[in-house]
């Protein structure tokens, strides 16, 4: 596992290389306004390390190396500023168009009105195959996890 506290520059390329070379469980942080923008920033930062990199190569590496985005946000609740998990999103390579950006499937987002979560059943049930396999290898049941989360969300 490789942990990088915050990616702000050319070290993004090193992080992507590590994440795509078998270092599962790697973790980093970066500043972005939402999960899609996080991937865009990661791509731009990686390309700043090597101007000869083709954008589609970096996108492919990001799509295969990043599994999950946990987006934190600051929200106003009444007169109070609160930090909450803003959204959770799966990331996968875009198999339909490998030259395009990775697929970002948000499966949970913060609902400020009642300080709860909005779960997207379609994204959770159809998680990327790479994530499904990693859960199985870890001895977890992906279907059971999805069912438990969705049952709890309906309760």
Description:
With 155 residues, this protein is α+β, with helices and mostly antiparallel strands. 39% of the residues lie in helices and 26% in strands. It contains 6 helices and 6 strands, in the order βαβααββββααα. The chain has helices at residues 11-19, 35-47, 55-65, 121-125, 129-137, 142-154, and strands at residues 3-4, 27-28, 68-77, 80-92, 103-111, 116-119. The strands form 2 sheets. The protein has a 4-stranded antiparallel sheet with strand order 3-4-5-6. Helix 1 packs across helix 2. The chain is globular, with a radius of gyration of 16 Å. The termini are far apart.
What letter string, H or E per element, gives the SSE order? Answer: EHEHHEEEEHHH
Mean pLDDT equals: 91
Report the uncertain regions: none
Number of strands: 6
Strand order of the largest sheet: 3-4-5-6
- Could you describe the largest sheet, including whether it forms a barrel? 4 strands, antiparallel
How far apart are the termini? 36 Å
Query: Count of DSSP helices?
Result: 6
